[in-house]
Write a structure and sequence with these properties.
This protein has 411 residues and is an alpha/beta fold. The protein is built from twelve helices and 19 strands. The strands form five sheets. The chain has a five-stranded parallel sheet, with helices on one face. A five-stranded antiparallel sheet has the order 15-16-17-14-18. The chain binds flavin-adenine dinucleotide. Flavin-adenine dinucleotide binds next to helix 1, strand 14 and helix 12.
């Protein structure tokens, strides 16, 4: 396809952009994805490490029974693993008895229930405002908020979390979620290594300035992470201050995964989960033997993840090793070695892991998603009212934006 033929340009080839482009192609609309990286998938990214496909970005098919990626991955011939996730199972772990673990889970669900019950007519609050005064699990709830939202409870809108639709079914793709997302875009028209620096919507056609020259299109779908839209007031010409402001209300939280190899792994049950220190906010979560593999998936969230990114890659391993030695003894240090890590907050094409709404800013999702002049459309996980922060939410916003773009170019 030459630049002149493009009917709809899609800025960003993540789950949202890929979903949009494929829907447009099904409708016979000539669409081109402009993607800054040298690969498709964005925050969905599977790499090979230790002989296994591992996901450095999304790993769980949340709301799996209605998640469109479940069907797409199955149609690709991939294996859907239906083992319930560690966070859905009550189990003892070092530092917590089974009863304490159940009590913590009850406190977490009670907090979420209070967010769900927040009446729409009442002003929004932070999740920290909904904590029980003097409650016993404050530190661990804050740590888990770091895993869920990438930020501590005081930073997160209760209204937004209350709107999140979680069906409670969580599956995985053995060959990788990121691999499934990338394969879904494999035969689409894509310009890689093509970072869009400006979306100029002054003329009859939309003009996209990129690191690979100028493209023009009748309509465009902007499917960028909210953090990037917030960071660049000059991205649109003329400027779209409502979009910049809405995106700023939906920052991307800090979350990173480190994978470690684990020697003599058989000593642990598959899918064992442990918090490094259940009485501390700055702690990581460890999933031992995911899929039964001889490895550990370490999950860092919130301020801890941000701080470790600032300190460099070795700081993640040092932190994990110290916590794991604290849990399983000094000999454990010899059984682990780093396999793979990605720092999403330092990644120039993401600037964080997934979006949360600041207190009072839940409605920014609708503002970010709203079209401009019937030809500039928006997609991406941050645009989703109920499935934000997920790869399926991103996909669904891509489909919705594509439907609008089809109407725009086909009348
Ligand atoms: C550690 C981690 C764990 C996660 N776990 C889960 C999980 O278990 N389940 C789940 O559902 N979700 C999870 N997520 C979130 C999920 O990965 C994202 O919500 C989803 O992939 C976002 O898709 P998107 O299309 O909205 O954005 P992105 O995937 O970020 O796509 C945007 C694209 O735009 C590109 N881009 C950036 N700048 C430019 C530019 N200037 N010009 C052109 N292109 C540009 C980027 O390279 C990227 O490809 C996780 C994410 C992380 C980081």
């Amino acid at each position: 396809m030459t630049g002149a033929d493009v009917e709809v340009a899609i800025v960003g080839g993540g789950a949202a952009g890929i979903g949009a482009a494929r829907r447009l192609r099904e409708a016979g609309v000539r669409a081109l994805i402009l993607e800054a990286r040298d690969r498709l998938g964005g925050r969905a990214w599977t790499v090979e490490a230790g002989g296994y496909a591992i996901d450095l970005g999304c790993g769980w098919l949340h709301s799996a029974e209605r998640n469109p990626w479940t069907k797409i991955a199955a149609a690709q011939g991939r294996t859907i693993d239906r083992t319930p996730p560690p966070w859905a199972r009550a189990a003892s772990q070092p530092g917590l008895t089974a009863d304490e673990s159940s009590a913590f889970r009850a406190a977490l669900w009670a907090l979420h229930d209070r967010a769900d019950a927040l009446p729409e007519r009442e002003p929004d609050r932070s999740l920290a405002d909904l904590l029980e005064p003097g409650g016993r699990w404050r530190e661990l709830l804050d740590a888990v908020s770091g895993f869920y939202s990438g930020a501590e409870l005081a930073c997160v809108s209760a209204r937004d979390l209350g709107r999140y639709a979680d069906d409670g079914v969580n599956w995985r793709i053995v060959e990788g979620y990121g691999a499934a997302v990338a394969e879904h875009g494999a035969d689409l028209d894509v310009a890689l290594d093509c970072a869009v620096t400006r979306v100029d919507h002054r003329g009859r056609r939309i003009r996209l300035e990129t690191t690979r020259g100028i493209f023009a299109a009748d309509a465009a779908i902007v499917a960028l992470p909210s953090a990037l839209i917030a960071a660049d007031e000059g991205l649109f010409a003329p400027a779209l201050p409502d979009k910049t402001r809405a995106a700023a209300g939906l920052p991307l939280g800090h979350d990173d995964k480190l994978f470690l190899s684990l020697a003599d792994a058989e000593g642990f049950e598959p899918e064992t989960r442990a918090f490094g220190d259940p009485r501390c906010v700055d702690t990581a979560s460890y999933q031992l033997r995911p899929f039964g593999r001889p490895m550990i998936e370490c999950y860092f969230g919130g301020d801890l993840a941000a701080e470790l990114e600032r300190s460099g890659a070795a700081a993640f391993f040092d932190f994990a090793r110290a916590e794991l030695v604290g849990l399983y003894g000094g000999e454990f240090a010899r059984r682990i070695a780093p396999l793979a890590l990605h720092g999403w907050s330092a990644d120039p094409f993401a600037r964080g892991a997934y979006s949360y709404a600041l207190p009072g800013r839940a409605d920014d999702r609708a503002t970010l998603a709203a079209p401009i002049d019937g030809r500039l459309f928006f997609a991406g996980e941050a645009c989703s009212r109920e499935d934000f922060s997920t790869a399926h939410g991103a996909y669904l916003t891509g489909i919705a934006a594509a439907e609008e773009a089809i109407r725009a170019v086909r009348g």
